[in-house]
Amino acid sequence: MLEIEKKFLVNKNIWEHLDKPTPQLIKQSYISDNKKCTVRLRIKGSKGFITMKGETKNISRSEYEYEIPLIDVTAMMGEFSDKTLSKNRFEIKVGNHIWEIDEFHGKLDGLIIAEIELKSENEKFELPSWAEKEVSSDPRYYNSNLINEL
Fold it and tell me: To pair with 29 at 20 to 30 A between CA atoms, which of 70, 74, 92, 143?
């Protein structure tokens, strides 16, 4: 499966004054992170997932995600990873797309990143007022690198 995604930093002043839906808590960690393959463990609400992502080329990469029992993902996080990233995720529809906006916790508190998944790298989309600088190609904003800031 192919993931085509753009990322933007969020303007905090605009964001804090918006009516927002109830977020979902996400906790995630990584058991493998290299250029060719990243393996992520995630707890989203009451569900567990394991995700493998390939090397990013432009704004595209292969992605395979599978739901796994929550008890298993919790055990794997404890056994195979040293750091866990925590964030609140808001899903907001803008035009024909659903934006995922992540507010990070802990040492990353104050960082807010918006992501939009597209069907093609050239697909047109409506840019909301709170989406500022695009950081799609900046590896500093990959979650697999942000976790190293913890």
Answer: 92
